[in-house]
Amino acid sequence: MKPAILVTGATGSTGASTVQQLLDLGYPVRAFVHREDERSHKLAAVGAEVMVGDLLDFQAARKAFAGMQRAYFVYPIYPGVTQASAQFAQAAREVKAEFIVNMSQKSSRSDAKSNAALQHWLSEQVFNWAGIPVAHLRPTYFADWSGASRAAF
């Protein structure tokens, strides 16, 4: 049996593409979405388990991770990424998650002049400290072309 994968930001461009590709490969997917709408209904229609919640709500993050082994974490360029990352990492530790893929920013670094870039760098550090294997994606055009067909890969 393939491991269950939690995908956050599942109605966004990279999240929705990730959900579809994982389902195509036969993985069980839980799509964590901020609200129920047409986009979340489409995810359910293709076979994802949809869960509505907020990554800034620790109990929601815990509930989302229940029964999951792996995760794709994406948070918008919006305040709260460091808190959301800390709560997500703790929820992952509690279920002994096997692996996390973290969508970060190309400009993430400790001396970044942009607060958003600095917060994404801090988010990376939180995931590193969690003790769960993690891959940090620092996209350039990835965020734009990831929704393309699988043939593009």
UniProtKB/TrEMBL annotation:
SUPFAM superfamilies: NAD(P)-binding Rossmann-fold domains
Entries under InterPro entries matching the protein: Ergot_Alk_Oxidoreductase, NAD(P)-bd_dom_sf, NmrA-like
Domain NmrA-like residue range list: 2-97
Full protein name: NmrA family NAD(P)-binding protein
Organism: Nguyenibacter vanlangensis
Classification lineage: Bacteria, Pseudomonadati, Pseudomonadota, Alphaproteobacteria, Acetobacterales
